[in-house]
Structure formats: structure tokens, C-alpha cells
Specification:
Elements: E1 3-7, E2 21-23, E3 28-31, H1 37-41, E4 43-48, E5 54-58, E6 69-76, E7 79-94, E8 97-100, E9 103-106, E10 109-113, E11 118-123, E12 127-133, E13 136-144, E14 150-158, E15 164-176, E16 187-191, E17 196-200, E18 207-211, E19 216-228, H2 230-234, E20 240-253, E21 257-266
């Protein structure tokens, strides 16, 4: 069940049956504990910046539109927008047990089911998900920088009762934001001292750069298939997309910690962004 705890501005009128609502308020707190995946997938959020870049998605974490992504940048603001970073798979391993607070929808089934750990969703200048796992509390925050096509994805771990291994697998799309990605296309990654770069074979769709100072990166490229976009199906459009991942970021956690993953989109001809010089604070 989703209930609104507080907000600075009044929201638009309640949705009609079957309609999706977009959270546009400046400050909002939603109690979402015990909500179903379907309920959370019908609530959307949106962040924008001065360059016509944006981040958008659902409270559940899964994308339901072709325009949902953690980072959609612009090659020629405000035009030529590219869906760069589609989503991330966040996983916690304790011994032989695996927990994930991510959520994707594949052919009408949700996996993993991270929404079951979600207690609260908050929106201010960023968006925040508060999760309660049996042995740790996790806050996942996303901020879109105002004047550059760059996001910070911040993971804050508190009340750590057991040590664990934390991993993040980013999923890239690297296509025009009106289209859908298919595994027949060719993407590749380059690992250098500063970041991991993801590009298409012809370098026509720009460059996605990923950087995390506190996590090691293992190149492990994979295609994941048939992500289901329920709102596209309702519009009568193609609704299945494939996404490509360059590998996995990893870190062992044994106490309270904050980890920042940076992602930026630039033209392939531009110099590499200095992500290691950015400060999340």
C-alpha cells in the first residue's frame, strides 16, 4: 500500500483507474512498505536538467517506458537524446545467500523482487529509495547534475549486522531514446585508469563513462534479453528490449559505508570526463 507522508506542494488530482501518476513535487515522502510490484510500477518519477537530459523510472525500480533510464543525455541539446545508462542490478551476497534490492520486469514477471525490501521512497532534488534487509539498511539515491549529462548513484549502508559482498552490474542501452535496443547491435567497453567507457561499434551514439573510486571493476560483458516495458504495450508499441552490461563493480562491506557510482554521457569525440574529480557532497 502506498501512502503519502508529507509533501511541500499539492499533487495533481488522484489518478483515474488504470492511469499512471508521475511524481513531480519538489519534496515528497511515500510510505511504500508492503506495496506490490504492480502498484510500485505504476508510480513514476522524473529528474531533469538545463541540457534537456533527464533521469526517470518507477518506484519499483523497473523501467516501464522506452523513455525510462537512470541517464538519458543529449548530444546536441535539446535534441539528439540518447538512452545511455538504462538501469543497474544491485546484489548483496552473504555466504551462499543472495539478496537484491533491484527490480526488473521480464515478460510480465518481476525479477529480482527487490521491491519486497522497499520501505520508503523520497524525492527532493534527487530521488531516494530506503530498503530494509534482514542484516542491513540501504538507501539508494540518484542525483542528476544541473549543467552536465552526469548522475551520481549513491549507496548508503547503515545498521550493518553482517559483513557482505556488494556488487553493481550496470546496463547500457546507447540508443536514440525513441527506439529500443536489440542484442543484434554491437556495444563494447574500454577500461582505463579513470573510468569504464561504453560505446557502440561505430561510435555514433556517444560515450557512457562509469567511475566508482571505492569499488573494483571486473569486465564481464553480457547481454540480458527481453526486458518488458508495460506502458509501451499499452500504447500498442514494441515492448521488449535487450540491454548490454560491460561487467560488475564489487566491494566487500563490513561496516557502515557510502559508495558513489558516477555515470556521464558525452559525445565520443569529446575528451574523457574527469569523474574522479567530482564530489557527491
Amino acid at each position: 500500500m502506498i501512502s503519502q507522508l508529507s509533501t511541500e506542494q499539492s499533487n495533481r488530482p488522484p489518478d483515474s483507474a488504470g492511469k499512471t501518476s508521475v511524481l513531480r513535487n519538489l519534496d515528497i515522502i511515500l510510505d511504500v512498505k508492503d506495496s506490490t510490484a504492480g502498484q510500485l510500477a505504476e508510480k513514476e518519477w522524473l529528474l531533469t536538467n538545463s541540457r534537456a537530459a533527464f533521469s526517470s523510472g518507477t518506484l519499483a525500480g523497473c523501467n516501464t517506458r522506452r523513455y525510462h533510464a537512470l541517464l538519458i543525455g543529449s548530444q546536441n541539446p535539446p535534441a539528439c537524446r540518447i538512452k545511455a545508462l538504462a538501469n543497474c542490478l544491485e546484489t548483496i551476497e552473504v555466504g551462499k545467500q543472495e539478496y537484491s534490492f533491484s527490480c526488473f520486469e521480464f515478460d510480465k514477471s518481476f525479477h529480482p523482487q527487490g521491491y519486497q525490501y522497499l520501505c520508503q521512497f523520497r524525492k527532493d532534488v534527487g530521488v531516494h529509495w530506503d530498503y530494509e534487509l534482514p542484516f542491513v539498511r540501504v538507501t539508494r539515491s540518484l542525483y542528476l547534475l544541473p549543467d552536465t549529462d552526469c548522475i551520481s548513484l549513491i549507496y548508503t549502508f547503515s545498521d550493518v549486522k553482517k559483513e557482505f559482498d556488494f556488487s553493481v552490474r550496470p546496463f547500457a542501452s546507447m540508443r536514440d531514446f525513441h527506439c529500443l535496443q536489440k542484442a543484434s547491435n554491437s556495444l563494447y567497453s574500454l577500461l582505463n585508469d579513470q573510468d569504464i567507457s561504453v560505446q557502440t561499434s561505430g561510435n555514433m551514439e556517444g560515450r557512457l563513462s562509469l567511475f566508482c573510486e571505492l569499488m573494483g571493476f571486473e569486465q564481464m560483458p553480457q547481454w540480458w534479453y527481453r526486458f518488458f516495458l508495460r506502458q509501451e504495450q499499452r500504447r500498442g508499441q514494441d515492448c521488449l528490449e535487450d540491454l548490454w552490461s560491460p561487467g560488475v563493480f564489487r566491494r566487500h562491506i563490513n561496516h557502515s559505508a557510502k559508495i558513489v557510482l558516477w555515470a556521464s554521457f558525452t559525445d565520443a569525440s569529446d575528451s574523457h570526463p574527469q569523474l574522479d574529480s567530482l564530489d557527491a557532497d
